[in-house]
Amino acid sequence: MKSITINGSPRESVGKKVTKALRNAGQVPCVLYGGDKTVHFSAAELAFSKLVYTPYAHTVVIEIEGGSSFNAVLQDIQFHPVTDRILHIDFYQVFEDKEITMTIPVRFTGNPRGVKNGGVFRKSKRSLRVKALPGNLPDFLEANTTELKIGHKLYVTSLENEDFTLMHPENTVVCFVMRSRAAVSEDDEDVEAEDEDDDATATPAAEGQE
Fold it and tell me: Which residues contact 47 (CB under 8 A, 6 or more apart)?
């Protein structure tokens, strides 16, 4: 999984006045949990653009002024209800030998067979919870939809990998193809194909026989 570096400054005061002043200066108050001690810091709002406004998941390297460095993942984020500006971010410290759980986006590939026959493709899960060692976390989960027929579903079991564990029941549906009014059943397609083959093999002599 790709990693993004965030350069931050330590926060000794965490009161409302200090927090408001930081936001007015274009800084985002942050807290890092999961280590030996809780770390309060702030970083420029623009520094989070590639972490927050992206369809992909990333780990984070937090570089604090003074030489401290931490590996982490984004745990929670608060936005302003009107402006959508980032108000606060919580991070969770990770260690290479300890598994963590993250929400990983699903990438859908292929053109479903059922859609070619008039079916409608539907996505049930655009992201899934994954548990793994930090080094085994994928950037995304690939869901190959090519063989999906009308009425068929793709389950999370199709996305399993020995490097990580999917934190969902086996019957969780990732995507499916539903029938539409214009849909053609695959059985009908097979019959039509057979009729075309029969017409193609008929000879003029045979057609002229009484």
Answer: 6, 7, 28
